[in-house]
Amino acid sequence: MIETNVTKMFGLKYPIFSAPMGPFFTRELALAVSEAGGLGVLSNVNIVGTDPVEEHKKSIEYMIEHTDKPFGLNILTSRNNRGVKEMITDIPKIIMDNPKMREQCVYFLTSAGSSKLLPSSKSFQELREKSEVKHFHVAPAHWLAQKCVDAGVDGIVCTGTEGGGHQSYEKVTTLVLLQQLNEAFPDLPKIACGGFATGEALAAALSLGAGAIAMGSRFIASKESEFHEKYKALVPPGTPQDTSLYTGSFGPIRLYKNEYALAHPAPSTKEEMIAYEKSITPEMAERDAGAYDRVYNGDITTGAVLLGQSIGIINSIDSVNDIIERIIKGAEVAIKKNYSSLK
Ligand SMILES: Cc1cc2nc3c(=O)[nH]c(=O)nc-3n(C[C@H](O)[C@H](O)[C@H](O)COP(=O)(O)O)c2cc1C
Q: Is position 250 within any domain?
């Protein structure tokens, strides 16, 4: 048994979370992770033609129908994210009105925008008072973690630059970030994210003060994930060098190097990136969203293929249960080995 402040906070068997992976659906994945003893997280699905509140509602309903275990959801709080105001107002209300949802949907993870937005929502304030729900925000740098603490978060997800998908301008590695945040906020619950795929890495995260890890790429290469088979098939042969940072609609994004990625080179400065973001028109956003539709349908050449450097250590596509069991066993062996080297 590995018990941490995070497993205790959410009543989990294992300190393992699935990372949100919008705009892709992660309903089946979240269900499998929660059922296996971790905490599954529903992604913010905002592809063209969908209503993000409705998608979250359907996913939450699906979860409570199929499991009694706890789970969570992600809201991207970027001003560029469609439906953000409706999500922070309506989703807490939907959960508040349903006792089973209130009991199980215990983790709100915000990211890619302000950590103050969700706590400013009256309906979230009410949900927070009347349930066990916790609010975490993704912190990719020390100064951003401080903002989260000032906003009154219950914990942070420490995501380094090696992680797949949405990234920050900060480019701090998970290893350095965890050491900084452990020193700065020793008692704050922390989830380590970006680059994790093995038990040894979980043991390292726990040594660095994290109470759990979250994984994206490792879970893409699972039997249960909704990603296209061609997407999954890129993972086992992939190397860390097959991914790099490019330009996304919410800041830099780590992509698999394909035709789409190479056509979206990363800007050299943060100022350039902010100027680019401000210039995004609804037509451009729609065109970009087409890259997600394409990859949904298996076009891994001109579609946006979000993956992290951790693909270099993932050798097979496995069931979520096997992935989690293997990581826990590996972590226990690593912790015992470290302990036995104490003389
Ligand atoms: C396909 C994909 C989509 C992602 N979409 C989101 C998202 O919607 N919101 C978010 O906060 N992070 C998103 N991320 C980042 C992940 O939540 C997480 O930080 C990352 O996968 C961790 O690195 P790893 O892939 O090495 O595990 C995405 C990552 C991937 C691979």
A: yes
